[in-house]
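ok so for the tutorial part 2 we go from a plain amino acid sequence to predicted structure tokens. step 1 is just haveing the sequence, like this:
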Amino acid sequence: MILALSITGASLSFFLLCFLANKPKAVLGDRWLGAWLGIHTAYFIALAVSQAGTGLVLLFSSVAVQSLAVLFAPAQYLQVMEATRAPGAAPYRNAVIAVLIATLLLAGLLTQSPALQQGAVLIDVRQAWVLAFPPLVILATLFFPVSALGRLTRYRRAAKSRLSNLEMAGLDWIRVWVWSTIAMLGVQLGVFIVSVTLVLPLPLHLATLLIAQCLQVGWAGFHGLRTRGVFQLDAAGLDDAGLVDRRDLAAAREDFAALDQHLAATQPHLDATLTSTQLADAIGWSGERLHRAIRVGGATHFHELINRRRLDMLATLIRDPANARVSLLGLAHDAGFGSKSAFYAAFKTLETGSPAAWRRNLTAP
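step 2 — the prediction. this is what the tokens look like for a chain of 365 residues:
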């Protein structure tokens, strides 16, 4: 049964990986979705191969690949961060933590004279501290899906459901996909606790984990294939994904340059109640032309563009010595932010650190 489940999981993962590889146009985050599927494929294959015996080579390969399983959640986390254009190098720095965890786990296992049985790595649990390894790794891994959910929530609030690469790839699909990882980690923790307290038979232990992992990959594939833009693109989605005719792309970029000049000259973003309709009317464009210029020509969306302008204006006001004693929220209001919550939501999306630290950096000599 373990062999059959391993082959099923490897086939599902590889099938979806092939779909993703043949996608006509990659969008933000696709490479990390591919990494997620690639790690699953290697994981399932290693488990299937390990059923052939108990040799030293098989033991080391099984330990290595099962340690790589710690990277499932970080790969998903990076997919979300890249798809939502998270600024800075913090997401990648956080993902390195998983590599360190996997390395420590591997080193810890090798010091305990592990043995390979039916694809599972068995260790001597007579030393109580060894039992702390699995739950600590599972709890540490929870950081990644929880952080991804927070990023998705902030991104949706800031974007106000405007079209973007994330929207095109299925915002709801990504959210539930992340929740499935949390559920998967819960299953792993539950199986570990039951195995320790009730001495769960090894085949049942492995089968439970493999079934849960196959279900997660299968769920991701089934719903991803039904959601436009995740594993493939249809004709209606080509424009949203950036697959446009070169002449159309050049026209959109020219429009975006003209829009940029208009924003610099008239500064409509200082109006906290500005809408895309008002901006389009001021330029004399249709709403469709405006959004196409922003989305295709500028690779952004309306709220992100306007809030970026407001933050740039706020930075200018902060650097003015005459405003040294003016509160940050007062300056934010002058820059076009209508409320404290609007300012903080935009800042979290487009900048890193805290607003106070950002102000100190701008005014530092």
